[in-house]
Amino acid sequence: MMPARLLAVVVVLALFALPAVAPPFLVTLMSHVGVSSLVVLGLVLLTGIGGMMSFGQAAFVGIAAYTTGWLTTALGWSPWLGLIFALALTAVSALAIGVITLRLGGHFLPLSTIAWGLSIYYLFGNLELLGRHSGMLNIPPITLGPISFMSQTAMYYLIWTFALLATLFSLNLLDSREGRALRLLRGGAHLMGSIGMDTFGTRLRVFVISGIFAGIAGWLYAHMTRFISPAPFEVKISIEYLLMAMTGGASHVAGATVGSGLVVLIKNWLQDLLPHLTSNPAQLEQVAFALMLILILRFARSGLMPLVLKVVRRTSRPILKEAGLLPKRQLPAPGDTVLEVDAVERRFGGLIAVNKVSFDVKAGEIVGLIGPNGAGKSTMFNLITGTLSVTSGSVRFLGRDASRLSQREVAALGCARTFQHVKLRHGMSLLDNVVSGTYLRTRAGYIKSGLRLDRAEEERARLEALMRLQQVGLAERAHDLAGDLPLGQQRVLEIARALAVDPVLLILDEPAAGLRKKEKDALAALLNKLRGEGLTILIVEHDMDFVMNLVDRLVVMVFGQKLREGDPATIRRDPAVQEAYLGGLA
Amino acid sequence: MSLDIVLILLIDGLSTGAIYLLAGLGFVLVFSVTRVIFIPSGDIAAFAALTLAAFQSRTVPGSIWLVAAMAVLACLAECVTLVRNGSARRLPHAIFFYAVLPLIPCIAGLAIAKQDVPEILRIAITMALILPMGVLIDRLTLRPLATSSTLILFIVAIAVHFLIAGIGLIVFGPEGVRTNPILDGVASLPGGVVVPAQQILMMIVALLLSLVFYLFFGRSITGKALRATASNRVGARLMGIRPERAAAAAYLIASGLAAIVGILIAPVTTMYYDSGFMIGLKASVGAIIGGMASYPITAIGSVFIGILESGASFVASDYKEIIIFSVVIPVLIWRSFAVHRDGDEEIEELA
Question: Where's the ABC transporter domain (chain A) (predicted)?
């Protein structure tokens, strides 16, 4: 076992020393690995972490390669100007394609990437300007002052400088505010919206970043080989990139380098070997790679990185107690109205799920919203949190109309929630899950995070998260994985994340479901304590016993309508409530 | 553009659309039962064309070895699974289904390859040979992942295309082929427009098979079982329908449709080992228009794609593919919103 940092330093030094000791063909090969690893790095962020599949990355490589190719040959511009324009055009293309397609779900998104990937590839092959299928010759080498990158060794160093910088940028990014949003993408839009993250915006930004990484690769490729034709920008090659990502381990940044290295080496070995066996080596190579991809998807979806990670020891960064605090919201005075639900109605086609329901919640109260199955509690919950929009009536939060606001906007006003079916990122630590909750209270963007200029704020956010974990009693396990917690504690962890939003109102969706008696008692004690600290709480619950001893007031819903409202003792005695719950048999 | 040209393009588009329609029905069927977008069905169509062409030129088609090898592997895979699950008594059934049945047309193919036999026999043996391909591909590659997300299944389907197209080159070689037309001659329309009989045949076959599909799914028990599996796997299982069996039926029918596609277009288009990808992709566009669920809308969508393609190849033939694939994106957006309206979708972890 050695520290991860040490291994990284060893790898970088080995890469630096390689041209001095290795034969030229290996240097060339490793240059190709570097170029591919840039594209694959984009795929790791996009696919492995962000959950979006793209069969179009090779097309982005092509856009950049052709841009710089054309500018430097037809117009005779400097390759560095070529770089600027290549990246600009790739980013604009990615932005345009992303705006149109990234709302697509499931298999629709990868289908669309095939569609535009193919279209762009055919465009390269049909534009007279780009030399059609014969491509472009005599692309000049890159020069920087007196240095020419004509030699393979010089090019090798240039390529790996870009590849390592991009790797560092990605590592920094993932360990930051926006990086957490990226890591939450797989958790779905409701999870992200509940803590104020923008799902579409995050998808779009990572798509553009992956496009830019592919663009850098395209620029390097064009000036390294100094000849381009449409073939390397085909959908088939995009699949090779995907294979590299999967081989290395698509959810790890370092997997990009490992995967590209391995696949390029295998490819080279096949290219030496296959001509002895067959007259169609290219196709046999395709067969081998396709087979490899299928086998990896079936047997080893996490790729090689887990093996690498076994060798290294990763220590969790300590939390700085002197980091300082994040700004906190002013809580309303006890008794002020926090939430007003006024004659809210929600229809689904002909079905009225919530029918003219009104109630309010005052600061410092715990209010329970109860009712039998199908009473419309969950719909009500979704209407308050902005997950669904109201058909008529209004939801006012702290005096502002919140009926038409999105989940994100509702969260920004100070309304945090938990989920009936726990939504946590099981592969992230407790701390990281809770730090995600501070998204709206912090500012750092992509550039700042990637360049590591966000540390002061980041440390404050981490300290805040630790304090929230202390508040709910999970601080000892801050660095464990969320997936290792039992269900009861996962629900508590969700509360800690919601608290990190710094809410005025906390809304809990069936928090006692699936909990054992002891866990329920602990949860009730926690909620009591939070009320004591001035928090306002609304509980949507099924479990009568749990709410009876906890809440100040109850709102009972039946068949989409409000049946009763009152203190627990009155509600318990109410014959109409008894009938609704027990069908009149009591 | 004169009326003649419009008419010619329209007929051309309709016959191309008929091909996409046949393949598209297979797409919808397989997707609705298994959630797989079965891109390799295009390759199956190409292999059917190449097989028939090989028979016509008195050579042994490479697909015989391919199907035989797949049958042996699939049979082994099935036997291993059965033994592991402790259901060894079903071994004979598995061997019959995965090995014996697919090997019969292989042997028949070997027997007639070098002989002068009636054309109809060649077509029949080509069909029988190609028919098990979908089921075998499924057993070897997709079935073990049946519970994965549509996304993973889609990547595997794409990988399978590259896998079998690569094998296609090895077993068939790089040469393009055309087969002898099934129907010779032309029909003259008023106004002097001539339509090759083969194109008319394509349209008639598509029409008839669509009708058969309609009746099959509306009336027969198997059809209803497939529909039930499509709408709810667990529910269907509770009703005694085995999803694996339904999937096998779907792949069998889809391969049959693909084989018909290959046999019908080989006389009018030169087919190569890798021609299937484009046929598969374009037919999938028709199926996507139908939401991978509706047969009638798929039919309309396929015909639309066929006409668009023939129009595009007349107006801007270099940009034909670009035009067709650009149409997909708005269609995808429209369809995706119909399915994922609230946008909350958790994505399966890779690791």
Answer: 339-584
Percent of chain B at pLDDT > 90 equals 47
List the structure tokens of A434: 């809770």
Task: Please report which helix (H) or strand (E) contains residue A343, including its range.
Answer: strand A337-348
CB contact (8 A) between residue A278 and residue B170: yes
pLDDT band at A586 (very low <50, low <70, confident <90, very high): very low
CATH 3.40.50.300 domain residues, chain A: 337-582
Residue B267 C-alpha, separation from nearest chain A C-alpha, in angstroms: 26
CATH code, A337-582: 3.40.50.300
Q: How far apart are CA B135 and CA B98, in angstroms?
A: 9
CB neighbours of residue A343 within 10 Å? 12
Q: Is the pLDDT of residue B223 over 50?
A: yes
Closest Cβ opposite residue A286 in set B166, B318, B351: B166
CA distance B109 to A124: 43
What residues in A contact B167, CB-CB < 8 Å? 287
Q: In what order do the strands lie in the sheet with A366-370?
A: A415-417, A505-509, A536-541, A366-370, A553-558, A561-566
Instruction: Report the interhelical angle of B119-130 vs B243-265 (nearest 10°).
Output: 140
Distance CA A220, CA A493 (A): 46
Chain A residues lying within 8 Å of B332, measured CB to CB: 101, 104, 108, 111-112, 115
Q: How many CB atoms lie within 10 A of CB A365?
A: 20
The pairing of beta strand B194-196 with beta strand B186-188: antiparallel
Q: Which class does domain A2-15+25-313 fall in?
A: mainly alpha
Nearest to A297 among B145, B170, B347 (CB): B145
List domains and CATH numbers for chain B: 3-339 (1.10.3470)
- Beta strand extents in chain B (DSSP E only): 186-188, 194-196
What is the structure's pLDDT at B346?
A: 66
Chain region(s) in chain A for CATH 1.10.3470:
2-15+25-313
Which backbone phi and psi does B265 adopt, to 5 degrees? -90, -20
Model pLDDT for residues A288-311, shown as the tens digit of each residue = 999 999 999 888 888 888 888 888
Task: Answer yes or no: is pLDDT of B74 > 90.
Answer: yes
Distance CA A111, CA B339 (A): 15
Q: Output the pTM of the full model.
A: 0.92
Given a cut of 50, whether residue A191 has pLDDT beyond it is yes
Contacts of B156 in chain A (CB under 8 A): 294, 297
**Nearest chain A CA: its distance from B54 CA (Å):** 20
Q: Which residues of B touch A242 (CB under 8 A)?
A: 155
φ, ψ of residue A449 to 5 degrees: the values are -70, -45
What are the chain A neighbours of B344 within 8 Å (beta carbons)? 188-190
* C-alpha gyration radius of chain A: 28
Residues 6+ apart with CB under 8 A from A565: A359, A553, A554, A555, A556
Kindly report the nearest CA distance between residue B341 and chain A, in angstroms: 9
For the cut 90, the answer to whether the pLDDT of residue B67 exceeds it is: yes
User: pLDDT tens digits for A310-363?
Assistant: 888 888 888 888 888 898 999 999 989 999 999 999 998 888 999 999 999 999
Structure tokens at A221: 């490729």
pLDDT-above-70 percentage for chain A: 99
CB-defined contacts A:B, below 8 A? 156
Nearest chain A CA: its distance from B9 CA (Å): 23
Residue pair B182/B198 in contact by the 8 Å Cβ criterion: yes
Q: Match 């600027």 to its residue by tokens.
A: A84
The secondary structure of A447-479 as a DSSP string is HHHHTT--HHHHHHHHHHHHHHHHHHT-GGGTT
Closest chain A residue to B173, measured at CA: A280
By Cβ distance, the residue of B163, B321, B351 closest to A122 is B321
Chain B positions touching A122 (Cβ under 8 A) are 319, 321-322, 325
